[in-house]
Amino acid sequence: MTVIPLKIERADEWSDKYDFETQLERHGLALPPLTIETLQVNVTKTCNQVCRHCHVDASPARTEKLSRAGIERCLEILEQHPQIKNLDITGGAPELHPDFEEFVERAVALGKHVMVRHNLTVTFDGHPQTGESKRHLPEFFARNRCEVISSLPYYHEYFTDAQRGKGVFGKSIESLKLLNAQGYGLDGTGLLLNLVYNPVGPYLPAPQAALEADYKRELKQKFGIVFNGLFTITNMPINRFKLHLEKSGQLEAYMDKLLAAFNPQAAQGVMCRSLISVDHEGHIYDCDFNQMLKLQAGMSDSGADRRPATIFNFDFDRLLRRRIRFDAHCLGCTAGAGSSCGGAVT
Amino acid sequence: MSHYFESEDLKKFGDIARHGPEHAELFFKYYGAVTGRDGALSKREKSLIALAVAHAMKCPYCIDAYTTACLESGADPEQMMEAVHVAAAMQAGITLVHAVQMQNHLEKLIL
Fold it and tell me: What is the DSSP string of A190-215?
């Protein structure tokens, strides 16, 4: 029987220097799960973009997607657990999953708050494999009152296109205008449009409030665009971004920076304490980053209950007793003001 | 082969305390207080000033450090380039204003 090990055994150069649990011990911190407020589901790795920092390694060539049975099981879990208030749908570009719209509509009908990690450009690019148009998305989001969360690495073309591909900034601006036209980001509509800032290299995000004020001023003045909030998210040293750091000889310096900026207050607010992440095969993880590293969560923290957790053996109470699996990349969530899928945590 | 200004050496800045810890401690405390937090100037403004000074003083360590510091405080490349132009314009101005001295002396020399 497969069980999840209590501690990740590493044999590489990261084993001691960047050991996350050592940092927790040093600061007298224990980080057990607090609740499961958000079910984050990565429905597909297919994406119309190929971003240089993407921790999912998503691209137009990827085909992995959650099965119909997986979607149905997620909806059952949402229905059976009023404690889970949010469905956070991500990818890839989640809108490229064939059952995406039904998933949203049924979760909304269950009274859940639905968040969509929308990359903006898919509205214009459509499905990269089938050519299917996605021009209706802004109206679809508004009709279902989804919270739209979209990456825009900067309010200038230079940084945005460097990270997300040539032409992405221009399309993103046009897409934001369509969302504004549906009422997104406007006072009094209740239609939430939040933007995500990622640094375009191995450095920490600027303070969230100051950067949000800059974004609001610049986007309003230059393009007439409004939005609700800005989430600053630190780049995690995994997958495509880690490879870039290795190739450019910057990995150690970046890890040193994250380590030096370890913030105990940010550690207490890490998102894995109130969220679980589901992959396209129905496996459960403590977060989307652990998902990409295949660090599957255990059902619980004791004996045989450390079997790998999936949506098919889902047990809310046992999952609250699981031991969150930390590794060196977690330093990205605890550096400076902290980082989560909802931005800074302090 | 050894080189001057190895980027790795920036990490060793703290080592200047080895043969003079008291002065080093005073310096780093002062340095941190001036550059490391918002005051009458924001950290972003201070980082842009430091970037300009780094260019004027031609310090490769400082250019690397404050390019990153500018980004981490939310400055954008246009602001950073403009800060360097301020340094360049000041240096040009400082050179040119000495032409007044040259002209004063010229007038003394000429009959």
Answer: ---EEEEE--SSSSPPPPHHHHHHHH
